[in-house]
Amino acid sequence: MATASVLIDTHILLWILVKSRKLKALKWLNDFPFWTISPVSILEIRFLQEVGKVKVDLPGILEKLKQDERFHLDNTGLE
């Protein structure tokens, strides 16, 4: 049987990375051992960074996502 994963929204991803208090309302999040991240979320974070809405270390975020076994960057093609 496959292990369940949940697709994480960009905002929730940012909350996880900064350890936001807003995560307390998302108790269901820990029901999933794996969190899938869409490449669009990475693009959105980059856009938000470029327009000055967030100040983040995008290369550091990507490295953190690679090292944390809970995260899975979805690379499903459109073919």
Explain this structure.
- Helix content is 39%, strand content 14%.
- With 79 residues, the chain is of the alpha/beta class.
- The chain has a three-stranded parallel beta sheet.
- The longest helix is centred in the middle third of the chain and has 12 residues, at 39-50.
- The mean pLDDT is 87.
Derived structural class: alpha/beta
Rg is: 13 Å
Helix content: 25-40%
What is the H-and-E element order?
Answer: EHEHHE
Which regions have little confidence, pLDDT < 50, spanning 5+ residues? none
Biggest sheet strand order reads 1-2-3
Largest sheet: 3 strands, parallel
Assembly status? single chain
Termini separation (Å)?
A: 26 Å
% residues in beta strands? 5-15%
The average pLDDT is 87
Principal-axes geometry comes out as globular
Number of strands: 3
Give the count of helical stretches.
Answer: 3
Topology (SSEs and partners):
Layout: E1 5-8, H1 10-18, E2 34-37, H2 39-50, H3 58-67, E3 71-73
Parallel strand pairs: 1-2, 2-3
Give a quick precis of the structure.
It is built from three helices and three strands; from the N terminus they run βαβααβ. The protein is α/β, with parallel strands linked by helices and 79 residues long.
